[in-house]
Amino acid sequence: MSIWRGQQRLILASQSRARKMLLENAGLDFEALPADIDERAVQRDSGLSSPGEIASLLAREKALSVSRQKPGQYVVGADQTLALGPQMFSKPAGRAQAAEQLGLLAGRTHELHSAVSVARNGKIQFADVSIARMTMRPLGRSEIEAYLGQAGDAVTTSVGAYQLEGLGVHLFERIEGDHFTILGLPLLSLLAFLRREALLAV
Fold first, then answer.
1. Is the Cβ–Cβ distance between 164 and 183 less than 8 Å?
2. Residue 127's beta-bridge partner residues?
3. What is the pTM of this model?
4. Is 174 exposed, middle or buried (0-12, 13-18, 19+ CB in 10 A)?
5. Alpha carbon 189 to its chain's center
6. Which residue among 38, 79, 128, 178 is the active-site one?
7. How far is CA 190 from CA 23, 30, 156, in A?
């Protein structure tokens, strides 16, 4: 028996492995359909500089983009930004850039801003942003190289060159924020919204 009570499946406007895992583990009946938007162009054209506002904008645009193709269905868009003070990070282009990012983050606290939006029939029905504060332990060059050697190509798939659910956990000494925010989807607030819409059995 499914927890999902919607007449049509939920849609996740993403192919993120972590976000799909979160929805699957929560027992939701969903389809993953990534949004076809140029994220960097949307960010540039917005003129926004706040990490939370940028994450929120991109989550909204992803949800709206897919919602226009799927009338009547609830579409979840999500995005995450990483900020070290005023500096925002993008996914590293290769191992050298991953090493550079880790060198900057080592021994310091950065913020992950995770945003979620739900659209239906081309209109936003719900939006939320949550923040996690991540303190990376001091790392020498040899430790960074050892980590990069073990993690392999996975370091280029995540901003900050780490995945906390994998080998990235070795890089940290303190974390403030919930697990779902860190993985890029404020799941508790999303589930609360779906419950209010009578879409969940639990």
1. yes
2. 117
3. 0.91
4. exposed
5. 14
6. 79
7. 10, 14, 28
Q: In the chain, count of helices (H) and strands (E)?
A: 7, 7
Q: Which residue has the tokens 């993120």?
A: 16
User: Mean pLDDT across the stretch 166-189?
Assistant: 95
- 3-state SS of 121-169 is CCEEEEEEEEEEEEEECCCCHHHHHHHHHHHHHHHHHCHHHCCCCCHHH
19 contacts 68 by C-beta, under 8 angstroms: no
80-89 tens-digit pLDDT: 999 999 999 9
Q: How far apart are CA 67 and CA 150, in angstroms?
A: 39
Helix 141-151, helix 95-105: angle, nearest 10? 130
Q: Which two tokens stand for residue 49?
A: 């500089």
Q: Strand pairing partners for 81?
A: 113
Tell me the three state secondary structure of residue 183: coil
pLDDT higher than threshold 70 for residue 156: yes
Phi then psi for residue 13, to 5 deg, are -85, 60
Our answer to whether residue 79 is catalytic in this structure is yes
